[in-house]
């Protein structure tokens, strides 16, 4: 699991026990737990299980979960490159979130560009896709600025909470 530099002084690193504060903050967000596997409500046990899942994903080869760290050294978000379906579908999936106090400061964009460049370059992933809810204009702008192009709606996409939602599908070849 590499550490990746990102634009504007951001960097990406593996999840660790020191990141439970970020998880607590994300679990309290009204949106993040709905579309991710962040545990809500937060508990120490749920946080430990989340951290173990992140470690295990890299170990078994299904993904690369990174913490987004700002220039001051604070953990502010998450970005994951999921490669488990790469052999079947010929593409990986990326997802990201940023805690509310750190939004609109370029963290997601810097992280997405860094992971995308690494995946398409060093890992030789042929294409990457991501899914965004149609109302999430910030995430749409982030995806488009990183060179992702909308390929159409995906009706009743099932995020980690299992509740079907319509999303936009974006792809970066």
What does this structure look like?
With 173 residues, this protein is α+β, with helices and mostly antiparallel strands. The longest helix has 17 residues, at 44-60. It has helices spanning 20-27, 32-35, 44-60, 86-89, 107-120, 137-145, and strands at 4-5, 11-14, 63-69, 75-82, 92-98, 128-132, 149-157, 165-172. Helices cover 32% and strands 29% of the residues. The chain has an eight-stranded mixed sheet with strand order 1-2-3-4-5-6-8-7, sandwiched between helices. The relative contact order is 0.16. It is globular. Residues 158-173 have a biased composition (Basic and acidic residues). Residues 10-173 form the N-acetyltransferase domain. It holds the Pfam family Acetyltransf_3. This is GNAT family protein.
